[in-house]
Amino acid sequence: MNAATTKTWKLKALIAASAGACLLAVASPAAAQAAWPDKPVVMVVPYSAGGPTDVVARMLAVPMGKSLGQTVVVENTVGAGGTIAPTRVAKAAPNGYTILIHHMGMATAPALYKKLNYDPLKDFEYIGQVMDVPMTLLSRKDFPANNFKELLAYVKANKDKVSLANAGVGAVSQLCGMLFAHQIGVQLTTVPYKGAGPALNDLMGGQVDLLCDQTTQTAPVIKDGQRVKVFGVTTPKRLSSMPDIPTLDEQGLKGFDVKVWHGVYAPKGTPPAVIEKLNVALRVALQDENVKKRFAELSTEAVPMEKVTPEALRTHLAAEIEKWGKVIKAAGVQAD
């Protein structure tokens, strides 16, 4: 082999080696994504353990984990009206190992708070919607009114004495109560709690008068019939699981429609392949027979599968931000 041939051979070998290195560099991210997940996924909940959103998260975690082949760990990151958890997830590494489940508070926070450390429409990737949860208007068991007509008469005559509990600033119970008071034209004394559980406990104990909260929280105590009175559901149609309870709309509050929707999110920049795997896991969980059974027991159900998409969640979130922004502005409610 002469010098020229040797030189040519070495050049070809160098080019081949370089090409191989480039292929490995290109393939490495794809291989890493293909192996995802290789450790547990943390699902962050903005509210306390035992509350409605926490209940939903824990129902989904097991079947999602089975689908992903890794444990889905539920962590409660509470505080600041449910805004600390989204901040945490927005700032997390965009690798799919930290995700967020949140209710309609994602849509109301921009109007409720003067300053947020995240933008719901810019700082997240969207995995899919989960469910629409009806709400119920309840009172303590010994409240003087026995039906909705009597409730309205009593509240209007005693508005300075009637207390309306909620689970804290930004909680859906606050929003439902706000809309109720606005629609009947009265100002009620609101009593904020640190979570839906404590609010419901004090209602059952007779410390507060009224509460509007999700069926995931209230259905069991409504069905036992011993500890609260129920005056109506907040959806346009009666619930198949509690058909004897009339809607607020049919009792005179025309157009009253409050459903608590939930969605699952990831940090902005999470790879599309990872979002797709999380979306598939969410779909699998929502079709799990045990999850369906638990949803039915709590008088709710999963959204149609066409809503369990990133696109549907983003579109719905944008519409809800606009809707609730108007309601909150009209009520003159804003937190620091």
TrEMBL record:
Please indicate which superkingdom the organism of origin belongs to.
Answer: Bacteria
Question: Which interval of the chain is the signal sequence?
Answer: 1-32
Question: Is Transport given among the entry's keywords?
Answer: no
Q: Which InterPro entries match?
A: BUG (IPR005064), Bug_dom1 (IPR042100)
UniProt KW Metal-binding keyword: no
Question: Which keywords, in A-to-Z order, does the entry hold?
Answer: Signal
* CDD domains from the UniProt entry: PBP2_BugD_Asp (cd13576)
Protein family according to the UniProt entry: Belongs to the UPF0065 (bug) family.
* Name recorded for this polypeptide: Tripartite tricarboxylate transporter substrate binding protein BugD
